[in-house]
Structures are given as C-alpha cells and as structure tokens.
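For concreteness, we quote verbatim a single protein encoded this way:
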Amino acid sequence: MSDLPVGLVFPGQGTQKQGMGEPWRETPSWALVARMSEAAGEDLEDLLLRTSAERLRRTDLAQLAVFTVSLVAHAEAERRGLLEPGPTACAGHSLGEYTALACAGVLTPLDAIALVAARGRAMRAAAEARPGAMYALVGAPFAEVEELTRQVRESVGDAWIANVNAPGQTVVSGSPEAMAGIAERSRSIGAKAFALQTGGAFHSPYMAPAIEELGMALQNAAFTGARFPVVANVDATVHADDGDWSGLAVRQLIAPVLWERCVGTLTGALGCRRLVEIGPGRTLAGLIRRIAPDVEVWSVDCPAALDALSGVRT
C-alpha cells in the first residue's frame, strides 16, 4: 500500500442507507453477498439494493447491511492489491469490530456474519423489551459530559456514557426520560445534543438481555490467531493471538466504545501514520481528523475511492 504504517478502521451502525450496495454491485467481490446470505439467514442482495431507508433503521438489518458492504469493500481492496504488503493493525467502531475481526483473519466471513446476525437480533429484542435512546453531545469536554450524565442518573433516571468518540464528541445512552434530561441540560456545559437514530440504548446495561443469545452464538464461532493486531473497543488495547474475543464481544454490548483511545492506540503504540476507513460513509474519517490531525486519513466508501487510493501507493 505504501511505506507508511497503515491501519484499517471499519464503521458501525448508523452509516446504512437505501441502495448502499449499488456502487459495489458490478465488482467481482460482490459474489461474497450470495455466500454470506445463507450464513446470515437473510437475502443480503435485496437488503443492500432494494430495502427502504425506513426498514434499514431496524437494528438487525442495519448491522447486517453495514457489515456486508464493509466486507465487500475490503475484499475488493485486497483483490486489487491495494492493501499490500498488509496493514499494521485494525479496529472497528462497535459493529465494525466484527468486520475488523474478519479482515484480520480472527473469524471467517461466514462465522462473522452469523455472529452479526445473532448480535443484531439480540440487541433488537433487548431494545424492544426495554426502550431506550441515545444522544451525541458535541462541543463539551468529556469530563463535563461525564459529570452531567452522573447528575441526570441520580436525579432523573438511567444514563450512561456509551461512546467516547473524539475530543468534543461523546454519546450517552439510557432511558428516554434521562436522555431528554441530558439534552435539555446540554447547553449548561456548552454542548449541542443530537438524537441518534438507533433502536435502543446501546452500549449500556439495557443491552444485558442480549448477552445470552450472543453468548450462544459465540460458542459456535471458531476464533483463530490474528494476521495483525486488532484494537478492542472496550479497553482500547491491542489483541492478537491472545485475544479473548468471545469475552470482549460480550463486554462490548454493555460497555462504552472507547473510540478516541482506540485511534490513539493505532497511531501511538502501533505507529500507524495512515488510517483507511473501509465501508459506508465517512464518519470515522471525520472523528480521526479530530483525534489525530497529523495522521493521513482515507475513506473507501465506493469503488472510485479505491481508484483514488491506488494513486497514493508508493
């Protein structure tokens, strides 16, 4: 790919959109979609080409869609030789961690998508059993968001930190009443609050009921040694051959995503000087520019972006 140490990053739920598979439909790597449909128990081609935007908001379908497009994009980048001699490390944001595990060889694509399907179903069921909401707070330091969240938890209801995404961007998760309280008080700490279009209070104790179903699915997955290190969401730590990925996957359901620290690990301890976001949207690229402005960032969200990336190879 280049003489720069390269890290790969993969997006999570929220980047899905109607027709998101169309740009990849004519690539040789699109053949993966048919193979993965059987393992997922879902017609992924229909999901990626013809499913409405409203239906794609459903948690289980959104996760399948984002994972599949990300994996197809990665496969196409590999097929074109754009990832040679190979990345230094990788990480994924929430759902994207499963893409990272598949691309690092920890899971086969079929095992990974079976887990994604089980995870999505379990999270959807947990959210239906106990409705929740999520808000992104933009513009306030993490410490102030953390303190506001604590105050609301003590005075209004369930509220937790769900994602520490970047300087000045933190996501909170919990009961609808508590989230409304945080949004109402967000101006007091200089933050703007944005409701996220999620199906529940993800990365919080509200997802505890999903642990059993995901745990059963994890028992059927074969984890192997990674071809290169993967940085885990829950501890922002490098995991390779010694990664307890079953345990990490379960913890990720109810623990915050430490994305800012994950990027810090990629660019710090692992020395990645170019980070390539592979999958739909460019959300992670925007966060990375805030976390590590001195690092080169590329997004691969369509085949044309692969053409652009080929032009920077040295």
